[in-house]
Task: structure prediction
Amino acid sequence: MKTAILGVGRIAGTLAVTMQALPEVECYAVASRSLKKAQGFAREHGFQKAYGSYEEMLADEAVELVYIATPHSHHYEHMKLCIEAGKHVLCEKAFTVTRKQAEEVFRLAAERNVLATEAIWTRYMPSRKIINELLAEGVIGEVKTLTANLSYTISGKERIIRPELAGGALLDVGVYTLNFALMHFGNRIVRKQSAAQLTETGVDGQNAIMLFYEDGRFAVLNSGIYGMSDRQGIFYGSKGWMAVDNINNPLEVRIYNEKRQLCRTVSMPEQINGYEYEILETIDCIRNGKRECPSMRHEDTLEVMELMDAFRREWGVRYPEESV
Result:
């Protein structure tokens, strides 16, 4: 499938490496607001065409699927450009800034009969099914509690601290902790609490979230931009606990018994870099006439966006795009 990348930042380079390794993908075009940057990216990653404007690339009738690799603040605008041009869209997380924007994107995609999906890679990975199967087996007994944390030293990045770029920990890394909880504990949440420490620019530098489920289960989530964390997700059961190494791209699962002994290790399948699953599922859905991906349904994206909207309201974090 003739695939294009809109934006040439770090994540675009990572995805280009993945695309080059997939026979299902034809690395066709790349666009940047700088033609020079686009040409350099195309040469480095083997793309056939380079464009100095997004509009020019989207006018190319050969482009079938566009991967959007721009900051959160621009996803809404750029997805609309792609969809109005009749292109299918795979968009980096967070999908949009607000739920309202996401609803508008999905409405427009339905009108134009194109697929639009969120590239939250952990939703598409085989690790998701493996973890859920282990929980269903009862390997650690009855599970009532989940914890997940994800923090990186990224407070010096402009896109992270600027409100006009929809910065903060929540939309960049906290979105993974929320998806982790929803993938493995579900969405029957009856109550939620949260707190955040804001930066001088007014975005969340670190946050803590608690989700209370109707069946008595409990999830505690933390994310931040100031330091490195162990990135673990841990399930606490009546007969032991299960630790997921790196919720942002699970490497292995370690299972401990009641005596606190490591009794089993489950490794995840080998992969290119983990991004291949979202690309392959998106292409498969497009080829089969589907307009959303089963691994990241529209309702899943909307649910996460609604939660993040609610938490930011609690913290007093508001972006310029909130008016949309």
The first strand starts at residue 2 and ends at 6. The mean pLDDT is 97.
